[in-house]
Amino acid sequence: MTDAISPEDMPRPMGRVGSAYGLSGYAKIASYTQIPESLFEYSPWYVKDAREGDQDWREVKLEDYRPYGKGFIAKFCGYDSPESVRALAGKEIGIRRSSLPQAAEGELYLADLVGCEVIGLGGVMLGKVLRIWDHGASPVMEVSPSDHPATGRAENRLIPYVAGPIVKAVDLEAKTIRVEWGEDY
Asked: How far is residue 43 from each of residues 91, 111, 159, 168, measured CA to CA in Å?
């Protein structure tokens, strides 16, 4: 649990633990950072299931890591067998906001968009950013309509994060994102 961490400093998703690797408790790691190996420069790491709330992060200690194929494998302290490390499989890896360097002028961390209200065409509230998927040509915001059932949409919507044509403005202070996106898209 992360009882002593302020809401502003809650860990931001920066990677994911994959399946167990080998017999000594290593796990495959997917890094969401722009330079994948930079994930290992940050400490401490926190993990949680993607479906859990922001308060459910728990700290894990990294013992070792090394490149493996196009990604990495890592060993966590106290996880010494494939069976034990399977408990971490699929969990998000988070880094506290205070552990990250300041974003350059005019830039932002995509993870800072999580929790922002998304406002579409005509000022319609489309929901809140639940998570960011960054696995292709452009990042995608997963927006949960749960706070705005009036839109009549029950499932999450995926909105590409493309500054200019789709994302018109981001105000991290107000926690809002204005998009060129209709509620019926």
From this structure: 17, 17, 31, 34
Burial class of residue 112 (count of CB atoms within 10 Å of its CB; 0-12, 13-18, 19+): middle
Q: Report, at the CATH architecture level, how domain 7-99 is classified.
A: Beta Barrel (2.40)
Supply 76's token pair: 């966590």
* Segment 30-74, tens digit of pLDDT: 998 888 999 999 999 999 987 766 668 999 999 999 999 989 999
Domain 110-179 coded CATH 2.30.30.240:
yes
User: Strand 125-133 relative to strand 117-119: parallel, antiparallel, unpaired?
Assistant: antiparallel
| Beta-carbon count within 10 A of 50 CB | 11
Does this model's pTM top 0.85? My answer is: no
| Residue boundaries of the structural domains of the chain | 7-99, 110-179
User: Are β-strands 117-119 and 92-96 bridged in parallel, bridged antiparallel, or unpaired?
Assistant: unpaired
Alpha helix segments (H runs only) across 27-159: 82-85
43's enclosing H/E stretch is: none
Query: How many residues does the structure list for the chain?
Result: 185
Strand 71-76 with 62-68, pairing: antiparallel
